[in-house]
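Incident log, structure service

09:12 report received: a user says their structure output differs between two submissions of the same chain.
09:20 pulled the input from the user's history:
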Amino acid sequence: MRVLNNCNNIFHYRFHKNFLITITAIVCFIFMLISIAGTANGESIDSPQLEEPIILIKPAQSADKAEEIENSNDKIPQDSSAVSTQSDETLTQVKKHKEINSQKENETNSGSFELNINTLENLDPDSIGVRSQGRGKISYNLWNGAKRELVDELLSKLPKVVKSQATRSLAKKILMAPGMAPVGSNIKGEFLKNRIVILSKLEEYDAALDLLRSAPGIENYELAAKLSALQSFKEYDLPTSCDLSKDWNNQTSDPFWRKTKIFCTALEGNIEAAVVSADLMRETLNDLDPFLQVFLDTMAGGDNKDIGPVDNANPFQIAMLKAAGLAPPISLLESRSPSVLHAFIESGEITLNTKLQIAERAAEMGLISSKTLGSLYRNVEFTSEQLANSSSEILSLDKSLARALLYQVILQKKAPVAHGIAIAKALKFSMKTGYFHGTSRILLPQIQMIEPKPLFSWFAPSAIRSLLAVGEIQAAKEWYSMILTQIVLSPENASIAIDLWPLIQIADPEQKLDQDMLKEWWSAQQAGAFFEDASALLSILSSLGHKIENNYWFELLSYPTIVSKIQPSTAASTLLKEFESQQRIGEVALLGILIIDADDINNMQLETTLPVIKAFLNVGLKDEARSLALKVALKQGF
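09:34 re-ran on a clean worker, output below:
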């Protein structure tokens, strides 16, 4: 068609000599013949050549023998021949191999080609994963250049250090992502099973099941059953857990199934048989789970409720306590286990203040919703005097109770201006007391009730900071745009725009650095806090890849050139730089998580997080880099 159009244009051009017209017609006719001939052979002048056939990963040269892997408290079993008699209900919990649907080529006016794809049965199971939806997908090369021994060491530390929703989400994404396994594993499926173990220790049982089901050639029915049972215990779905226990108790020697069978026998009312089985298990293994012992004593009418000092508990152990009507032991108060946190929140044997503290911790980790936390806040009883004098009352209350009081005050305010003032007060208090992100999440619906209009210009700083804290970037930009339109009407709005500019710039690392606004912000800083604020901003912008002109750095040389700050260890810093330079995405993510959450006690020190922001950005974890940079900037007071 393009050739015909060219000819048409040529023939309609106003030539005055017939000789040129004739020559042009002959040339066009020749081009048309060439085009027709090319189409007949399946070629096109405008179409690019077909790409090379797609070839999926070839299976790793590895032995078939599998090793035992461990759950959070018990060993997760390997395949055995006894599994073949498994019931249909359990079999449905394990994904069948997906069939590859053949694709038929449309051969009309085109040649056919062969798509060379290995069958799923031949794929290396260690490379299998489940792709996350939406933005922020992990590169398939995340383990490129990684050494298995080091990766295993980093993975083993995750369950003990993950303390926030952001790091938990990143850890889950890394564990679920597909990609060539690190070098060093010679047992087929070993790396896959290790990832499943870590997910189970994080109590991400559904995710672990998804990962197991996605792997061709790995038919570990008992492992699937155990993960399903733990998920059911986590949800306190005892009938499902006990059905699985009955199916598997006689097919394996794993103590996990023996303990669940004893528990379920007691639940059915046969206490004597359960106690006999427990005594036999104690004699055989020379040990008995203290949670099971206390459960049986309670069910038998005893008063032994002393579990002893423990530092963690799995969903099965928590389910036993709940079935016996017992609260978790006080030694678990500092635990970050999802099951333990939920048990304390539901417990009636701890103080209200302690329950709120645990609920806030769970919300910060993304383990309970903001709606649930809000419900707990609403259920706190305050006097009318406390509600009327909240500004003075919060000074004498525990921080969690104070936040609950301020939340109830917000719900009472119906007039838009009064509503906004109450929100701003609550956000300011949470910023001072270290729970700004959590408060921002719970107040998001309230903030969204106020439209970004000039009438509420005074509310813009609170709204923008809070919206950015919870990732509502576009909504924050709408508030900022409103402020920009009001600059000519009020010097105060101009000051707000300059003060908030660093956050808006940091929120979008793809955006080119606004040198004019940087200059305006620099000039507007007060002498007292200039060095700290200026150093922090330049450092954050530099970690996000922005080029800072030397004159800014030169000006800071008039301040102390040596400062004492908390920072990552030499070992962590050295390895992070090496992983970053070699684009070892998985190891950068894992080490970054360890550094970030190890700094939790110091509440996001700038020097600790800057290397992680830079490394995340340079290996392609842009969303994580931006989120971390915003969190640090807000912590610095921007």
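09:41 both user submissions now match this output. Likely a transient worker issue. Closing.
09:42 reviewer note: The chain has 31 helices and two strands. Residues 18-40 form the longest helix (23 residues).
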